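Archive maintenance. Older records in this collection stored only the sequence; we are now back-filling the structure field for every entry so that each record is complete. The fields below show one back-filled record exactly as it appears after the update. Entries are processed alphabetically, and M48 family metalloprotease is next in the queue.

ARCHIVE ENTRY
Title: M48 family metalloprotease
Organism field: Pseudonocardia benzenivorans
Length field: 162
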Amino acid sequence: MVTSGMLRALDPDERRALFAHERAHLLGHDHWWLLTAQFSAAVNPLLSRLPATVDYLLERAADEHAAEVVGERRLAARALAKAGLAVLRQSPTEIGLSRGLALGYGTSAVSARVAALLDPPPRFRRSAVVLLAVAAAVVLGCAIDAGQDVERLFELAMLGPR
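Back-filled structure field:
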């Protein structure tokens, strides 16, 4: 969500970064990821910190996308900082119900996100991708094996005692 206060606070290049950030949320269908995390936390209280973590990571991914689109990490960081300040300066009546929906611009994570944008871009780690693929294969294998075990148990149960 973009507020009128954000648009007034940003110059044209910064607005381009802001819109690239918001477009990244739309292209990535981030609302579904966040909804899934919130549902998971509602079902399993041990996952109560998951929605905040997913929200932060989605914001960081959108920040990186915006920096890539505008071609300058410092510009994206400046746009993020100014948009965050603009949200904090607006009165609740100006923003209406959207204060909490301003896609993380008014949260405390803004300073960490700006700092991350001022650092060099994150490196692609092939080992992490390989590890994730192996873990997914192991989980899939376990699920298939468990399904076969359950099928055998049902077959034994259908035979019943003799």
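Update note: Residues 124-162 form one domain. Residues 97-103 have pLDDT under 50 and may be disordered.
Entry marked complete.
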